[in-house]
Amino acid sequence: MSSELTTIWLLRHGQSQWNHEGRWQGQADIQLSELGRQQAHRVGQRLRRYQIEHLISSDATRALETAQVVGSYLHLTPTPHAGLRESDIGAWTGLTSAEIKARFPEEWAAMNARADVARGGGETYSELRSRTWAVAQEAVARHHGRAVLLVSHGTAIRALISAALGLDVFTMHNLWIGGNTALSRLRFRDGRFHLDLHNDTAHLEEAEA
Predict the structure, then answer these.
(1) What is the pTM of this model?
(2) Active-site residue 86, yes or no?
(3) What is the DSSP letter of 146?
(4) Which of 41, 54, 65, 86 is catalytic?
């Protein structure tokens, strides 16, 4: 088995207007806010110091916009991939947490009990994990020994990381969803994934300083 190292960078998209309003987005196609665009530039400036050779993005507008900005710093054009979309949350889409809790109390309780529930009639966590995990496996197979950046969404990234680390659906909830443009990184070697960076937003802290 090859001991060559493959690096998978994971980037959550910049802030969208619905992020700002506290609305659950799911697979709704929402654009970045002005702050989100600034965040994308910050993370792009940070990532240009690394030898990233391939850029793959969720085809949702907020992710693809982020990827296009970052790609301008890396001299890469993002390839859209539906497998990196956020979890489908069905009827919960566009609602705030308070609205979801009021309208769907049983589903809300099941989710918080860490059940593998299809929120809003959309995907289960298991389905999301399978979909995003397939993208990671595809990236390793196609770009073995290289560095790849995947631009995706909070819950989708958490699901992908949990699958890569062999966590079950229950345990994946112990992984925190990072803020907008949070960076995580998986290393693949000798048939195993290792997580060596998780939810890093140092580029935003540097901007604030």
Answers:
(1) 0.95
(2) yes
(3) S
(4) 86
